[in-house]
Amino acid sequence: MMQRDIDFIRVLDEKLNPVGAITKSQWSSFIWTERYQDPGQFELKLWGGVYEALSSATDYLGKFLRVPVSNETMYVEKVRYEGTRQDPYIVLTGRTAEVILANRVLKGLVLPYSVPAYELFQYAWDWSLGKDAQAARQIPQFLLDSPDHMTGHVDYDPDGKTLHDFAVYVAALHKNGLRTRLHQDEQIAINFYRTRDLTGASGTANPVVFTDTTKSLINMVYEKDLLSHKNIAYVFLRGAHDDANATVWFEVDNGAPSGIGRREGITQPSVAWTKAAYQTYEQQKGLTPYGLSYIYEHKLFDQLEGEAPNQSPWIYGETGHYYLGDWVMLGTKDKFQRCRVLEYTHSWTAGEGYRGYPRLEPMPRT
Known about the structure:
By secondary structure, this protein is mostly beta strands. The protein has five helices and 19 strands. It is globular.
């Protein structure tokens, strides 16, 4: 069994110099969530009143946090004071450090064609915060872990996007995870990584199988909702230059019902086009893949999460049995299905100690 309890949280300043620590006696609860491609997040509740809240805003806002059980680095984005009659406390919240990339807009960036994705992203990185950026835009504390295994060709329109948008797009396209790693205690590395098939289908020696009968996953929660579900896609294009007033609406129907069950959505791909290119229905049928991709991303997906007990045979982590993005098996009664590990939550409370919660998604999107 791996020891997951912690005694302190390291605090780093903008230059990644250690500037302090938050000890276990100072917090009532601490939740640290890591995610496969989306930014992770944390919430830390500290004992204290108004004076401590003002002090925390100075001491922690805009700083970075590190914990021994994770290779991720969190960025403190918010300090909030919640006063109650008995137990006032201060809440620190934030997300994983890659959200800093969202502060670099890809303004005026022109990406070359027929170039592998890793070269395109390196080009965008250097241009927006790296060696080719204006001095004020450079962030020397950030390092791009060479993503040269991402060799797919992409057609990406950077207008109105950020470097973080581009990173998530490239990760999703290659079915890679996206994470931060501390590099020699001096830089935060942005890392794209390959995931593994641990289901046994590819000859895995020790497949990772979660079941409710073996108690490898307990307190399961099942969720399915219609909030973002769409079954009709309208592919919308707007012309440019001489065709600025031209538009195309192309409907993609993947067998959707009528009436209330018909759930329409709009997708606007970055496609260079002219009126002549999409005048006929046969020409517009070339837009079908964009619509089908949109429908697939908005399908009804099962979401399952549960608690991994301390005595579970499966240990989470980069050097453990499974990690973010890996394929694992989930068994409930007589039904087994492949699942993607979407996120993992470390939770510490004053009363209950440590708990770990993996979140799995059957039939994942990417």
